[in-house]
Amino acid sequence: MSNLRREEESLQHTELDVDVEKRTSSSSGPSDAEREGTAHQNELGPKSKRAHFFSPLDPAVAEAVNLDAETVEYTPEEEYKVKRKIDNVVLPLVICRSNDRPKNNGNSGNAHVITAFNENFGITDNKKWTLALSIFYVGYCLLEMPANVLQRRIGANRFFFLSLTFWGLASLSFVYAKGYGALLALRVLLGIGEAGYYAGMIYYLSFWYKRHELAMRVSLCMTGTYPGAIGGLLAFGLVRAKTSVLDGWQFLYLIEAIPTLVMATMILFFLPPFPFFATFLTPRERAIAQARLNRDHKPQSHGGMNGWQGFKAVVTDIHAWMFMTVYASFNVGVATISYFLPTIIAGLGFTAINAQGLTVAPYIVGWFMVIFQAWHSDRTRDRGWHIMLSCFVSFVGYLILATAVQESVGAAYFSLFLVIGGLYSLFPLVMSWAANTFAPTSKRGVGTAFIVSISNCVSIASPQIYFDPEDSYRKGHAISAGCVFLSMLVAFLLRMRLSRLNKRNAEKLDLMTEDEKASLGQVSEISDMDPRYVFMT
Asked: How far is CA 138 from the centre of its chain?
């Protein structure tokens, strides 16, 4: 009996020692594996195979990386190294994927000044041409938000593969299509392939870069100036080409479609669906990549609001409608200038071939303005004032076009530099500002898609403002000037509102006790309705 009692006492001491050891271990801080940022990723089993192409990504992987990101310890040098790896692998693929597609807008404008193109598709007057331009936005608007939900489910690489393949095949079909009905049908198909293009790219990049790093990267991916310049050069050279099978304008679409289809395959195999699944990063680097963003805005690819909840959060947010107004207003000019630029230059007295060559210079100068504005916006961590400056530059350009296009060829051509530079620099600034404003991530994804989708509903009517070719489109230029001015005004009001919200939230936090602050809770991702959230202005 005494032996049994001694064994029980011995067992109790052993259990006590183990319990003390556990408490000591847990209170001593993260383990080596946790500090390394690999503990939870190491616990993952074998990589699960997706059942089919549209199967969702494994949320357990994203959760493991997020948990490792909470405890990983790293130096600024390591963070810089990870960011450079992302710049060298992800960014080039996104840039190539993004800059490959806007050339169609420029190519359509370049082809329109060629008589053979108009005869092939039965474009006999300006009304038929503007209708063909407008119908592009129908499928674009209807599928923009569903496309963003699909991207979140299957991953960026598979979504962009589908989008690029669909768009490339539609572009290739232009080569052999004939008749006005075929033109309208192909324009609708192009719009469907374009759905999710801009919003999806910004949503994807927000998983890789901090808020103050985003505008510069978006400008490299989103500007239409670079492909516009290339499209002008290609048109200038290819319109002279003619074979027994293909005419010059057909080569424009052929040379555009083939690289797009090749790029779609590269995107599928080499672009990571999200940072959590990036094979070019080690497990530790994936944790660092996530940790650097968690300390900035903590994006999440899974969980949180579903698509419908995100939609309701967006449509009841006044900021979404203000961003939509800014985007829709300047997009009136963007939706028309890329199509009408060769026509406007030809109207100054140049031949069709020379007009295509003269489109290159405004796009090149515009590219420099896009890059500078985005770089300076990131450097100063400001969006509002930069947007207002770009709006003002474009506004001045349109005023010159509306008043001096018939009096001075030099002034009219110079004004195109202002219009192109001002308009296209607004894309990355406005969309990165919107992405910086909406939270959580699920709301951000729907919000950026909402802005693009609703704004492009306005773009359906945009080409119709250029209804006066006999008057050098002066009324259209005046309407565009008014729209850009409205964009500048709403951007000013939005900046003032966000600045006031930041000040009010800061004052509210200062008045709160520690217990009240603690009652806010530790959430996985802070909402933009939370007083702790700081808006970029």
From this structure: 20
Residue entry with tokens 């063909």: 132
Phi, psi (5° rounding) for residue 451? -60, -50
Axis-axis angle for helices 180-194, 126-154 (nearest 10)? 30
Token pair of 502 as six digits:
């930041």
- What is the SS3 assignment for 377-442? HHHHCCCHHHHHHHHHHHHHHHHHHHHHCCCCHHHHHHHHHHHHHHHHHHHHHHHHHHHHHCCCHH
Q: Which tokens sit at 374?
A: 């985005």
Listing DSSP states for 75-100 in one string gives -HHHHHHHHHHHHHHHHHHHHHHHHT
Which letter does DSSP use for residue 272 in this model? Answer: -
Of 236, 195, 194, 203, the C-alpha closest to 105 is: 194
What six digits make up the tokens of 165?
């393949």
What phi and psi values does residue 536 have, to the nearest 5 degrees? -80, 135
What whole-number distance in Å separates Cα of residue 524 and Cα of residue 521?
A: 10
Q: What is the pLDDT of residues 122-141, one digit of tens each?
A: 999 888 998 998 898 888 88
Q: Are 422 and 484 in contact (CB under 8 A)?
A: yes
pLDDT in tens, 20-51: 343 344 445 677 777 888 899 988 888 778 88
Contact (CB, 8 A) for 296 and 213: no
What pLDDT is stored for residue 77 in this prediction? 95
Residue 532 DSSP one-character state = T
Confidence class for position 106, pLDDT limits 50, 70, 90: low
> Which position has the token pair 């490339």?
168
Is-contact 96 263, C-beta < 8 A?
Answer: yes
**Which residues does 257 contact at the CB level (< 8 Å), separation at least 6?**
168, 169, 171, 172, 174, 175
Q: Which of 36, 27, 43, 114 is nearest to 71 (CA)?
A: 36
Peptide bond into 102 cis (omega under 30): no
C-alpha 251, offset from chain centre:
29
* Local structure of residue 349 (DSSP, 8 states): T
Rounded to an integer, what is the distance from CA 402 to the centroid of its chain? 31
Q: How many CB atoms sit inside 10 A of residue 148's CB?
A: 27
Nearest to 152 by CA among 280, 278, 28, 299: 299
431 half-sphere exposure, CB direction, 13 A CA radius: 36
Residue in 52, 34, 69, 8 with CA at minimum distance from that of residue 525: 69
Answer yes or no: are the C-beta atoms of 140 and 194 closer than 8 Å: yes
- Which amino acid is it at 399? L
Confidence band for 19, pLDDT divided at 50, 70 and 90? very low
Rounded CA gap, 348 and 409, in Å? 6
Q: Which amino acid is present at 22?
A: K
Retrieve residue 419's tokens.
């219009």
Whose CA is closest to 174, among 125, 131, 126, 136? 136
Collapsed DSSP state (helix, strand, coil) of residue 23: helix
